[in-house]
Amino acid sequence: MTEIRWHKEARLEAEATASFYRERQPGLEVRFLDSLEDALRRIQRHPLMYRKVEGDLRKCKLPHFPYGIVYRVRPEGIELIAVMHIRRAPGYWKQRK
User: Which of 5, 89, 91, 93 has the lowest CB atom count within 10 Å?
Assistant: First the structure.
């Protein structure tokens, strides 16, 4: 299976989002993390399936949550750039290239 390498800030975004959902409703963070893991498995299986959003960057939306995974496919694996809220500050992650 294709290796996924996380950008440091993307990992922090995923953790912060899980914490936010845990504070809102206990157990909701588990649903978020399960949705995130499922999306990562889909990306690993079919990395070119998701639409390009800019250059070689692609976005996979998470079901049931207003979040998307921004990533790029490299010869050495998948580079996860951001776990972004879809309705907030679009493009804030562009400096991470």
Answer: 89
- Please give the Cα distance from 57 to 79 (Å, whole number): 9
CA–CA separation, 87 and 78 (whole Å): 24
Three-class SS of residue 69?
strand
pLDDT tens, residue by residue, 21-67: 999 999 999 999 999 999 999 999 999 999 999 899 999 999 999 99
Domain assignment of residue 57, given as a range: 4-92
66: domain CATH number is: 3.30.2310.20
Q: Please state the domain count of the chain.
A: 1
pTM of the model as a whole: 0.89
